[in-house]
From TrEMBL:
Name of the protein in its database record: NAD(P)-dependent dehydrogenase (Short-subunit alcohol dehydrogenase family)
A Pfam family per the record: adh_short_C2
Gene3D superfamilies found in the cross-reference section: NAD(P)-binding Rossmann-like Domain
Molecular function (Gene Ontology), one example: oxidoreductase activity
KW Hydrolase (keyword) present: no
InterPro entries: NAD(P)-bd_dom_sf, SDR_fam
Lineage of the species this protein comes from: Bacteria, Bacillati, Actinomycetota, Actinomycetes, Streptosporangiales
Keyword annotations: Oxidoreductase
Length: 286
């Protein structure tokens, strides 16, 4: 049986039961042509794994797959389409023999504006790309992983999964749904030896944040500057920061982590960093 898990386990003969490297490991990364997904594809392949990038940006996705070499390939995948999702998972298994990791990451900002002026079709499109996509990926990844007896799913949630006001209404509602899905499915699939978790990035330098900051998805410098200024640490979260966390959750070091939501934001969501004056005081009491 293929096992992606506890590296310390010693079997009856006293030998290690499992491998701990990524050499034979395969991932499907949705939204892998850009940003966090592209960083995950790069890190996964650099760690010795094999990766299928699924995206709707065919040119970018193909270029990245070419750059990463024979351990990587590109598949056109609209994450809102169930047939596409099923086919991308099947092609991952056909190409590389297994699906050890599904990284459900594709996303958009979606509908903006006050609730009373949020058009229902824009709401539906947003929820479809962010939440229906996670459902479809998990739905079709689980049976494959169950038959393998191993596998780890990671979804990209957001700090907007944790509280209001950190994104537009539809985005926030959908991202809360992603974490709800992760918790619900974790309660089922632990029994099959599988795991599902999510990363919750704060403002991250990518085309998505750049398009919000400057209207130009290619202006990553503008996104970097704006997010750095808003961060307590003086630097923004990068796509690589989020990919590292996702890689950890997908890997053997996270063998006992199931149903978790790991914030990747330098602590900005959990600390009221505008109150830093408290920590700069001289130790006196008031
Ligand atoms: N950048 C941030 O500040 C931030 C913060 C929190 C969460 N996130 C989440 O991170 C994830 C990745 O976003 P990113 O920041 O890397 O942005 P990005 O724009 O660089 O990447 C998103 C990718 O998703 C793809 N995509 C969009 N719709 C798709 C569809 N229907 N089918 C397949 N692919 C589709 C895009 O083509 C793109 O390649 C998203 O889920 C986003 O909500 C981003």
């Amino acid at each position: 049986m293929r096992v992606w898990g506890a590296v310390q386990y010693v079997n009856e003969e006293g030998g290690p039961e499992v491998e701990s490297d990524f050499v034979t490991r395969t991932a499907l990364v949705t939204g892998g042509a850009s940003g966090i997904g592209a960083a995950m594809a790069r890190q996964f392949v650099a760690a010795g794994g094999r990766c299928v990038i699924g995206d709707v940006q065919d040119e970018r996705g193909r270029a990245l797959a070419r750059e990463l070499g024979p351990g990587c390939r590109y598949e056109h995948l609209d994450v809102t389409d169930e047939d596409d999702m099923r086919a991308a998972i099947d092609r991952t298994v056909d190409a590389f023999g297994a699906l050890d990791c599904f990284f459900g990451n594709a996303g958009i900002v979606g509908a903006l504006g006050p609730i009373e002026r949020t058009p229902a079709p824009a709401w539906d499109r947003t929820v479809s790309v962010l939440l229906r996509s996670a459902f479809l990926g998990v739905k079709h990844a689980v049976p494959v992983m169950r038959s393998q007896g191993s596998g780890a799913i990671v979804c990209t949630a957001s700090v907007a999964s944790l509280r209001g006001g950190l994104g537009p209404h539809a985005y926030t509602a959908a991202k809360h749904g992603v974490w709800g899905l992760v918790r619900s499915v974790a309660a089922e699939i632990g029994a099959y030896g599988l795991r599902i978790n999510c990363v919750a990035p704060g403002g991250t330098v990518s085309a998505l944040s750049a398009s919000l900051v400057s209207g130009d998805g290619d202006d990553l410098d503008a996104a970097y500057r704006r997010l750095a200024a808003a961060s307590s640490s003086g630097r923004p979260t990068t796509a690589d920061d989020v990919a590292s966390a996702a890689l950890f959750l997908a890997g053997p070091g996270a063998a006992r982590i199931n149903g978790a939501c790991l914030a990747v934001d330098g602590g900005d969501d959990l600390v009221a960093h505008k109150a830093r004056g408290y920590f700069e005081a001289d130790g006196s009491e008031r």
